[in-house]
């Protein structure tokens, strides 16, 4: 199963390191990543595979939310199918 992870907030060092470390520690494979900086704001979207993950989707979501709080970023995780359905015209 694939998930879409979005990370948005004021730019600072260590954002990608903190998010990718958490994913790695929980068996999540990053398939694609896109990032940009708009003035002082950082925005990133990732596509990740969670089939090998040893924790539940809810636990992953909670862990990433805690990372987001610690680095003052908004981190959201959605199932790819739900993300696609929400963004279809």
Overall pLDDT level? 92
Structural class: alpha+beta
The CATH architecture name reads 2-Layer Sandwich
- Counting structural domains, the number is 1
CA radius of gyration: 13 Å
Count of β-strands: 4
Do you know the CATH topology?
Alpha-Beta Plaits
**How would a crystallographer describe the biggest sheet?**
4 strands, antiparallel
- The CATH top-level class label: Alpha Beta
Low-confidence stretches: none
Tell me roughly what share of residues is in helical segments: 25-40%
Q: Could you give the order of the helices and strands?
A: EHEEHEH
List the strand order in the largest sheet: 2-3-1-4
Description:
The chain has 89 residues and is an alpha+beta fold. It has one domain: Alpha-Beta Plaits, CATH 3.30.70. Helix content is 36%, strand content 38%. The protein has three helices and four strands. It has a four-stranded antiparallel sheet. Strand 2 and strand 3 form a beta hairpin. Helix 1 packs antiparallel against helix 2. The longest helix is centred in the last third of the chain and has 14 residues. The radius of gyration is 13 Å and the shape is globular.
Main traits of this protein?
89 residues; alpha+beta; Alpha-Beta Plaits; 4-stranded antiparallel beta sheet; globular
